[in-house]
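Continued from yesterday's entry.
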Amino acid sequence: MRYLILLKAAENQLGGTPPPELFAEIAKLGEEATKAGVLLDTAGLTPSAAGTRVSLEDGKISVTDGPFTEAKETIVSYAMYELRSQEEAVEWTRRFLQVHVDFWPGWEGSSEIRRVMGPEDFGAAFAPE
């Protein structure tokens, strides 16, 4: 099963520049997950100031350029894993957040784990031919 893990945090907290040691430890964790064959993709995202929101409300589509001031937290990165269970996704996520505890004291954020649905979740109407 595939799991998408979203990291949410306030933009530019603690000065906004993560310590280089944090990046080194994240790279080690990513290398471990890649060697284990479970990490499919991961990346950081640009700040919301560089983003665009496209919304549908009351039958109308609107486009708004960032930053999005009403958001306390934004999605700052993601990772896509191929794992056996939700519990395994929680463990990889816990390890990722622990690296932040260890190498960026005071940083705060949260992760959301979502299983990616495939054709098997929707029945024959969405099955590949």
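--- second protein ---
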Amino acid sequence: MKPVTNLNVTQNVAMITLDNVPNKIDLIASIFSELASHGINIDMISQTAPYKGNINLSFSLDEENVPKAISALSKFKKEIPHLRIDIISNLTKLSIYGEAMRDLPGVAASLFTTLAEAGVELKMVTTSEIDISYLIDQKDEEKAVEIIKQRFDLK
């Protein structure tokens, strides 16, 4: 069975990173609730391990929602004085899927190696047992899609 059976590409993605967020679940919940109340759909979410009581929280969203997201997040500047909001636009999300990944070690290693050899820089990675999603620069999309298709014999 092939380890990777499908590759999905999502264009016009942005990533927002909130730096210096207190590691309090009620605060994190209120951040995502605020974004939801503004009609903003969040996709990938990545959180760093706590350091001195703070985390960094990154998430992806449709590029067109960035202005609304910044507006929604600005209310947290009062509550979190050292909050920094970083935005990276012009990203593409690649989602690699395969049921066999669940039982086959090395698929992530192979994907990281393949992308590294092509010089594709990763902005964020999220995984499940059968899915790996990468945020990359839009300019690297065509190259990354081609090398992944070649590596895993995808059409």
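The first strand starts at residue 6 and ends at 22. Strands lie at 6-22, 42-47, 54-62, 84-97, 122-127, 131-137. Will compare against the first tomorrow.
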